[in-house]
Amino acid sequence: MSVASKGNSVKVHYTGRLQDGTVFDSSANREPLQFTLGDGNMIKGFDAAVQGMSVGDEKSVTIPCLEAYGEKREDMMLDIPLNQVPPHIKPELGMELSLQNQAGQPVPVKVAHVDEEKITLDANHPLAGKDLIFDITLVEIA
User: Fold this and answer.
1) What integer pLDDT is reported at residue 53 of this predicted model?
2) Distance of CA 4 to the CA centre of its chain
3) How many other C-beta atoms can be found within 10 angstroms of the C-beta atom of residue 124?
4) How many CB atoms lie within 10 A of CB 39?
5) What are 65-104's pLDDT values in tens digits?
6) 17: alpha, beta or left, given left = phi > 0 and alpha = psi -120 to 50?
7) pLDDT 10s digits, 101-117
């Protein structure tokens, strides 16, 4: 029986949840997730968890934030003076907005603070700073 190793194209079903049990993503009722092991497109801990599995294997793995989306970074918190916010935007706590980076690509941000002078935007990944738990089933190795 073959095992998944770097360079293999694999298909997995998974459910991702937080420490408190909140499910943040799942392939249930969808096609399995397909990716190539070791190509850098998956978070490091997820990729490492699938390596060595055989088709039909199931496992539950806790991935520390450093092997997932990293720690929450203060340099990803942006203070914007209210007079620089476009007039059609009425910022509210938790509101999701999109900025553009220097290459013109969209960067999702969330309003983390609003006061009379400024808003603070959080450009961290929503799962940054969180340890993640994945239940993984290897469906196919190609």
Assistant:
1) 98
2) 23
3) 19
4) 11
5) 999 999 999 999 999 999 999 999 999 999 999 988 889 9
6) beta
7) 889 999 999 999 999 99
Amino acid at the residue 62: T
How far is CA 8 from its chain centroid?
22
Considering only CA atoms, which of 58, 51, 68 is closest in space to residue 10? Answer: 51
Amino acid at site 27:
S
HEC letters along the chain: CCECCCCCEEEEEEEEECCCCCEEEECCCCCCEEEECCCCCCCHHHHHHHCCCECCCEEEEEECHHHCCCCCCHHHEEEEEHHHCCCCCCCCCCCEEEEECCCCCEEEEEEEEECCCEEEEECCCCCCCCCEEEEEEEEEEC
Dihedrals phi, psi of 74, to nearest 5 degrees: -65, -30
